[in-house]
Automatic annotation (TrEMBL):
InterPro entries: AlphaKG_dependent_hydroxylases (IPR050411), TauD-like_sf (IPR042098), TauD/TfdA-like (IPR003819). It holds the Pfam family TauD. Residues 1-36 are annotated as: Disordered. Transmembrane segments: none annotated. The keyword Oxidoreductase applies. One of its GO terms (molecular function) is oxidoreductase activity. Residues 101-357 form the TauD/TfdA-like domain. The keyword Oxidoreductase applies. This is TauD/TfdA-like domain-containing protein.
Amino acid sequence: MSATQTITVPTPDAADKPQQPDISYHPDEAKFRARTARRLAEDPTLPQMPLPEGFPATVEGPIVWEAKDWTDESQWVYNLTDAQLQEIDQAIAHFESLGQPLGFVGRDTFPLPTLSAELKKLAEVLYSGRGFFVLREIPVDKYSRRELAILYAGISSHVGSGRGRQDATNAMLAHIKDLRVSHAHEKGATGNSAYTTDRQVFHSDIGDLIALLSIQTSASGGTSRLSSGGTVYNEIAKTRPDLIHVLKDNWKLDRFGGDPGYAERPVLYLTEGHAVIQYSRRQFTGYGEQQRSPNIPPITEAQAEALDMLHFLAEKHSLQLNFKKGDIQYINSMGLLHARDEFTDDEQHTRHLVRLWLRNNELAWKTPGPLEKTWQLLYSIPPEAQRFPLEPEIRRLANGSTK
Ligand SMILES: [Fe+2]
């Protein structure tokens, strides 16, 4: 070695660091197919991999369905009668006569003498049947926002008496509406497709049950779509068992500036024979102003493929719901995935849904271990601490700021 030569010690190069795969919130089928082809070319044995121990070749039950299993909305729409609507009005008056804060709306304070038994049967459909139903229709225009909140929380308490918080400030109602103009000054207004007119791709909300009350519909678009997690599981287990391994292992969920920066848990769980797919694509790809945090580990190519596989299989088997003004849609979010199309509002038609998260403790599936802490936090808000925002707001952190 001459005196002029220098020895360079290899240093970690940015190019060697794992990079976030080429994947975004909006699924791109061509990229998905290309990624699958690339991965199978690298390892053609992937489809022959045995399933992880304890994971069955198929899951079964009424919640494992395909869109073609449903032919008519009368199969899932429950039409309220005039007598039942009168019961609801009497229950509102009864609750108001008690003079209690809204957090105390419940089965006892919102009595429904005959409708209660029907709602109990429908709750059984959520956990032991197809996993969804629509209650039609609440004459929403005749009520004040406060009365609507009482009515909505009251009816829903007969479906599931456990009520989940929507954010860290114990808001129990979340407004799903295009807030990009009205809340443009707040951070987070475009970091979640729920606050835009954009499409929301397949995902599941946290918690057991989701209720969505439509108080106004869009001028066009916004179709709700549901898909069975069990059906998606069965097809992946049959065609790509290697991706069942990927889905049941830990993933790094972006907490978008939280501390720590990310959480770790699986996307797929089994409980009491049910496949539970619990994820939101934006936690792995980012969305809008909330892009995947650069200082947290990227997802892997296998995870990127699995994310797209979940989406495209859910889409393939999905059922469209005709969601009308005055409808309440109830969904088992443990067993079903949901999505909505993009939409257009006009002055008379601004899509506005109000969401509750619920749980029926008597009927609930066993919460998978890694989700227990989250569920506990969600459903443990005492009545006096529950907040019912009657107007739209962006979900907040504990200090009151938006993300
Ligand atoms: Fe959702």
